[in-house]
Amino acid sequence: xxxxxxxxxxxxxxxxxxxxxxxxxxxxxxxxxxxxxxxxxxxxxxxxxxxxxxxxxxxxxxxxxxxxxxxxxxxxxxxxxxxxxxxxxxxxxxxxxxxxxxxxxxxxxxxxxxxxxxxxxxxxxxxxxxxxxxxxxxxxxxxxxxxxxxxxxxxxxxxxxxxxxxxxxxxxxxxxxxxxxxxxxxxxxxxxxxxxxxxxxxxxxxxxxxxxxxxxxxxxxxxxxxxxxxxxxxxxxxxxxxxxxxxxxxxxxxxxxxxxxxxxxxxxxxxxxxxxxxxxxxxxxxxxxxxxxxxxx
Amino acid sequence: xxxxxxxxxxxxxxxxxxxxxxxxxxxxxxxxxxxxxxxxxxxxxxxxxxxxxxxxxxxxxxxxxxxxxxxxxxxxxxxxxxxxxxxxxxxxxxxxxxxxxxxxxxxxxxxxxxxxxxxxxxxxxxxxxxxxxxxxxxxxxxxxxxxxxxxxxxxxxxxxxxxxxxxxxxxxxxxxxxxxxxxxxxxxxxxxxxxxxxxxxxxxxxxxxxxxxxxxxxxxxxxxxxxxxxxxxxxxxxxxxxxxxxxxxxxxxxxxxxxxxxxxxxxxxxxxxxxxxxxxxxxxxxxxxxxxxxxxxxxxxxx
Lengths: 297, 303
Description:
A: MetI-like fold; B: alpha/beta; D-Maltodextrin-Binding Protein, domain 2
């Protein structure tokens, strides 16, 4: 009798524990959001929002005139991210299609974990490769003199986004009911036609979600980009220019900024802009993924 | 189940113990933070000093002059290294927080302007260097070189070197936004070695390899004050001392008010003959007699 009572108490305690764990994540998220907003808002006592988002010159420590224009950095961030996705999505889908439709199951069992290991390489190490390996190669191919530019950043971010894209795309390709492919083959379609016309469209929402998650990874990455893009503050005119992303700028300037000044608040405002951007991207990914799961059922 | 809980408790206990030990250690340890130009020098000074003084524990971190100054103001370090003067704004902030910064000159640095060895330019005026970095000159042709785009390398805004250049060479004007902002002296040098159109600024301590020779692939530019004037190299001690080499600067260590015994001993040792010998060995210049006298006064003066 007593034993049963004890079991009940234990049961309840365990339930509370797991509930607390679940709530904790939400509390942390809300906490971060509140801190970010409350520290970012004072920046706009001295900076106009329109100026912050639409001017291109950022120079908070200028001896002439302090300027807080974020546009160059927003464009740089989007450019580096877009470049990364341009490289990573086709390759990622290709690899995913190979893994799910072409490769022998034994090859797949070896290859998939190896690709996932790619995701755990520390970003500093990737950046290091960018400096000593890709930088000189890029300088040679494009005759730019140096390899510290957006191309280098895009290239490395593509490598970092690939595992996410491959892994989730492969999952969604594998989840397409076998009957679809079999029906297509039975109608006389070749394996290529089956893949491109039937199986890929059927898993499209999963692939889109995978790309969005890869994009979220790329937008937020700091160290790699900081190391290889040259961090010039000018407005980028092409992929061979040195660029400075929002994440790099926060990392560079937060260490020296005097606390509770406009500059300090402005850095948090950049953080807020980044947060909103990644949040929107993840939200879209989530909505698309949900739509896809609903259709499955 | 019981075993898991026991293990967890033991691990937590261990972690707490380690944390406590680390905290206790930090209490005794002298924390030095700041200028990247000085971090190697001060690290070596600290190591030699710790080797000679039993019981002394000194931790040296880089991060840039601004980082060190902020650290001293927020009282997260005992000594702030800076390769530039403190700004009036920073001194005000320190006083507001009850920190009274006191300065000790550690060494003298000649900031050198460096290009790739394939660049034929030998000498520039200080005004020309300023024009390059303000972005007014886009091609090497305008300063007597070949038709090649200028590729600017500099430090990030938390660097004392960045501030010093801006004040002394750029005439307190904005840097060109095309300047690539690198993480440290070593990265600037790596960039210049690869890039034939490059120009960069670094402390003299970073120009030499381990054998004491100027790094292969680099060229140090002679700097003159006037057009067609005599140019001097930053490696020329006499020229730096006399001020003929125009871009030199003192490197500071700052403490809060009168330094405590352990810190004061370390600072006195640096100003002394042993410390200054290491300063020279590391490629910087020793401090002058009046700077040394001022240091000694600052060590004793109490308030």
